[in-house]
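Quick board copy: two proteins, each given as sequence then tokens.
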Amino acid sequence: MNNCYHCGQAVAENIDLTARVFGEERRMCCVGCQAVTNAIVQSGSESFYQYRSDTNTTPDFTLDNLPATVRQELTLFDNPDVLGDIATARGEQFETVLIIDGITCAACGWLIEKQLMRFEGVKAVQLNLSQHKLYITWQQDVTALSDIISRIYSLGFKAQPYTPDAAQQQLQAEQKKAIQRLVLAALGTMQAMMFAVPLYADDWAGIFIKFETYFRFAGLAITTPVILYSARPFFTAFIRDLKTRHLTMDVPVSIAIGGAYLASVYSTFTHGEEVYFDSVCMFTFFLLVGRFLETRARLRNGEAGNELHNLMPRACVKILDNGDEALLPINQINIGDCIRIVPGSTIAADGIIVNGSSSIDESIITGEFIPLHKQVNDTVIAGSLNVENPIDIRVTAMGKDTQISTIMSLLDRAAQDKPKIAQLADTLAQYFVAGVLIMSVIVFTTWYFIDSDRAFWITLSVLVATCPCALSLATPTALTAATTALRRNGVLITRGHVLETLRKSRRIIFDKTGTLTLGQLTIEETIIVSEVNTNPLQIAASLEHFSQHPIAHAFQYEPILKASGIHNHAGEGLSGIINNIEYKIGIASFVSNEHINAIAPDKRHWVALADNKQVLAWFLLSDEIRPNAKNTISALSQLTLECELLSGDQSTHVSHVANTLGINKYHGGVSPQGKLDYLAKQDPNDVSIMVGDGINDVPVLAQAPVSIAIGSASDLAKTHADVILVNNQLTRLPQLIKQAHKTARIIKQNLAWALLYNSSVLPLAALGLLPPYLAAIGMSASSLVVVFNALRLNKLPK
């Protein structure tokens, strides 16, 4: 594993990115570094790499002391070529995602959002606290991206354009540092405890009294590295908070650690009564345990989110015009090219199979673990796995236009939204920190007059015990676990409010065609009227073979007969000649003539096949109901949801589907405007869920409090939906509702636990009944309770 030539970070083995500098190919860790390097070289500033004193790692600095190399790099983000690689243009506005380093709690996110929104050109700022990803929408001609990132640096944080690999590398670097700090704090705790025990023994320690000064200085020597390295993140955040005049949980933590250390140092040199070097190390250790687990959870969530990105191969086999094969980088493949996918390989692009058949594993995208059989003319999705046989596909979408990229962009959109309960927790944590500081002043003042020797240590316990770590972790950990579990099972949440709103829902409204049904006409029943030598279905299939009408797909028969004189009669049917006999297939009035009076068996959708003399057969066409649709409706009804059917279809098939599935309330022949009007008439307290798939459903999907689109829906419908059933399985709907209720319960449990713990431990600490080291253990334990309780959402309800 080599280091990135631009930033000096380690380059993962699966990354194959380079940039040409001084005539040589240099390895890059991510596309961000590659874009910046290419821009530097193309602008004639290649000497930047020749004269820099070190690699362009980002040290701890603020805007006032930015190194010239970093200033130059930030300016390059305004280069149109670089900006095009890291941001998406939306008219006059740009959208990008930054990965932020140095965030410790919800208050940090609040600070960044509020500061950046002060810029005139910034339209929207949203921080994902669990992933440390910052989503920004701004006008580049009003406020440059370099100014935005510079402002983030001035607040004491570090920022860089987000790429999956760069984000994972940053998380892994954080994890490595966290382990190092944790190990040092653990060793320091053990060694400091070893020298503290003789001091606690006091008068009955005998010979140990002679070595009291030695034990104290030994504890000082052991604790100082813990303070300087292990506890450094707390003090860095504390200084940042002082500069920005903003409270985070690092303020009471830093006061507690720093105060205990300085008091112990003072006591060591002045021969005071007490030193608490062991408590300082122990407190730091337990705090870091909580931070380590939080970082580890973010790393695992990041790995889960980037799993889709990492599926994509970097090269594939292209079939050339002369039939030869060539292994080319994926960025050299264009739409319309034909590529070959061998067994065991990941499909590199969305496409249509033009040769061969195989089983395709789409589990990573749809959540379905059984491979699907695909053959010529079937579509395949980028990121899925070819299991059995080689296939050739014609590329229909690449890069950002593939379904997998659409899924990731929708996931990012969901991550930007904060539910009201998450916003409440963030606000509550800020006020809680202020309350803790005020209470600490009161406790110190009170105990100073009661017992001045104990005042400091009791105040220290108050600061430690009431640190609102659990309060800040209560909501984001639960939401992240819940949405990750749903995504793994083919339910993609694209809006942050979904889980909160679903638990309030009392009504779910379904579209029919393509939602409750498969959207594909099939022959439900055949009535043979006149016996002929040839199978009527074979005659009908031979005529419909030449038609592109959706009805034609219902007639499948092999082999087809040779037909001539095929004529399409719009809205009526087809006519043609087979074996010198003219046939007609279509509605009753179309096949009727002076010899034939065709009357359909009933009002359902019957199609007649006739020759010049008689009706040969009637075919009943219907849209097949989705598998498990009836079980889904039954399960939703048991969850006290009122199921309704709202369809644009004017046929009797609407009532047939409703009666089959057990839906009592249904309406047919409803226009898109009619669906909007119907939704508007419903009681807003009974939050409605709308499930649809077609373009005609887009207006009502956009208007509904919660909208759900089937995975096979139109792209426009999926874009306006809050939830997408990627695997087309309606059975996931009851699980989604149950998961929403379970998530709400766990969030309430987490918040209740955090508030109960902090409110109950405060009196104990204020009364001097809780020593600092027990306060540190309790605070870390409360955070772990919240995290482990949230992890219960990793599995969906049955």
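And the next:
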Amino acid sequence: MGWSVHWVGLVIIMATASVAAGRGGSVTYDGRSLIINGKRSILFSGSIHYPRSTPDMWPSLISKAKGGGLQVIQTYVFWNLHEPQPGLYDFSGRKDIVGFIKEIQAQGLYVSLRIGPFIESEWTYGGLPVWLLDVPGIIYRTDNEPFKLRMQNFTAKIVNMMKSEGLYASQGGPIILSQIENEYQTVEAAFHEQGATYVRWAAQMAVGLQTGVPWVMCKQDDAPDPVINACNGLRCGETFAGPNSPNKPSLWTENWTSNLQTYGDNPVIRSAEDIAYHAALFILTKNGSFINYYMYHGGTNFGRTAAAYMITSYYDQAPLDEYGLIRQPKWGHLKELHAAVNSCSDTILSGTQTNLSLGQSQEAYVYQGKAGECAAFLVNTDKRKTIAMEFRNSSYQLPPKSISILPDCKTVAFNTAKVNTQFNTRSIIPRSRFGSAESWEMFSEPIPQYDETSIKANILLEQTNATKDVSDYLWYTFSFQRNSSNSKSTLSVPSLGHALHAYVNGVFVGSAHGSRTRTPSLLTQIQLNTGINKISLLSVMVGLKDSGAYLEHVYTGIRSVSIQDKQQTVNYTNYPLGYQVGLLGEKLQVYTSQGWSKVKWNKYNSSKQLTWYKTTFDAPGGSEPVTLNLGSMGKGEAWINAQSIGRYWVSFHTPAGKPSQSSYHVPRSFLKPTGNLLVLLDEEYGNPLGITLDTVSVTKVCSHVSDSSHPITSLKGGKKVAEKHEEAKAHLRCPSNKIISRISFASFGTPSGNCEKYSAGSCHSSNSKAIVERACVGKGECMVALSYTKFQGDPCPGIPKDLLIEAQCHSHEELSFNFRGREPSNLLL
């Protein structure tokens, strides 16, 4: 693998220089690519959503994206965030879209702006504001005048804001693409002929706003001219039908780097190799010239912004994780892909393409420039076999399902299946514990009764219409007279909400919850009194549905209520009911410094159902990301200094019996040095004494390089002759504030496995660890050559060698903890 090092270093420099020159100007397109200021480019883009991080994080996220070889940052625009009430707009704090775009511009990158304004994005209600439900006669996302008027108003608001700030490329700004609508083809058929009419209207409306840059529609094969149809998915090089006009370029707006995760799900891992393979394949098979990674940084669904059942952590497996830390090898492997492609992009875009069959599942894509330039991509689609390919009098070994990039048609600069970059491991380090009962206070949320409610109806109200989504909670209450003696009865409550808690005469009797694929239904035994019985049912939403046709008709909340005993079943669905929107603690904002004094807090004694908990804490030192480990809690929401870090649902386990998420991101900007107010609402029997405040850091790095076990050979005089290549080098690099404190494993020889699971093989140089320790310990980064000289001899002559090293990274502060016998725990996240 050493032969790729020189090429990669060279092309990274070339790519960086190209990006630095990127500025706004004329943006046009033809059937081959976007054309910016008269120049064609193959553009790599990454999705970073401004409200899923904080303004103080934006510069670092954008810088790391640029360092990873991206030229473009893509973001949605979040309608329900910016227009929470009709005509009332908010662009402050995390909602400062102009500030976000200007930061991108300041760092020399372009912007792809997906206005939508329906966005899906695992964002509550798909980004639509709930107040649309109050518009008479409205039907979302179809040829419906009430909806089109509101949609056009918001789209024009955003476009005019961008224009007023000079942010479109046509004005010298960074925005080179805009998007209208989002994956509409998945619902278009539900609206029949009005769906097609709406598509044509949306395209015409957007183009009529005269941004001076192209518009796109993703997953819309019939996108009307001049709007460009684009692909979303895992394998657009295989699945995309292509542009619907020969005059449009081939764009991939969402190359998914992992997948969404809901409560009860395990994380979905997509390998760096698979992402790189399909990105390269898209360039070859579809003439792709724009590839956006969704997400490049997912971030956090703060507050109540996550869609139904979505966890707070969003696309944590992206190249930049939830906290903005670089996730290796994904970030580095894609960086090398970008560099290799950029080094020959002019040849790819302007050269003549020829396809050569080199075997049953092997093919060469060759691009020949007019001045003799040549670039080639060697493709092996066989999923099981490494294949030796002969190309231009040289032999190349291609691993299964891989693509090799030869910028000069001779030397391999990159192979999608060969990971040269280091791996890293993320750990959590407890910094503060909340185990003292004396530090906690608690307030029990009162259970409302029918005669205490101000909203009355003789029907079951639909929850979203009743709450207007100002709260996740809606109380349904009623009372009735029972003349018989005490007996056991069964309470039955099917619901189209997400969770349900039931109380009889003020006493908790049971809960139920659903999932992304199943609605909840409560069936529980209850004890009724002779005389008046009071029933209080708390229906809970965990975000609103974010996709599908006719969202305005989606029903949420309780569907029916009945009580059965030995004599009869009584249905209370059409019965005098009292309603309370939200909780008293929400109404009084007890999570704020002004609101907490409005209720009486008691000393913590034991966990209770539906309870508020309050304490204060000091921020941990340093600059590493901070999380709140809520593994001892149940279900609810957490606030720090009046800012919601999101819903938590630790009690909702995966099939393996573990929480989908235990650690919840606390941005540093939410914290003060001392006296931070932490308030939690827990619907279940959570234990706040088990909470810890942690920091997140990269504590392990690993590098695995191979000898050129299958070296490139050329044919001279009819014989294969091995060419000489640069030595492979293992490169280890700790985060900027850490040094290599220990080498936990090193093997020069034939180590088995990889950086995720390894062991020494039958061939192993006994001095491997000592040599690596001398080269690396105490340094922030080091390079160790895969060299017989370096390791003082060949432990097994004639056998190709690997070098695998795993190192520990610690800061000076952490090393001080270790010295005092307080070594941080290495709990993998």
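Board note added afterward: Residues 95 and 571 are 46 Å apart (CA to CA).
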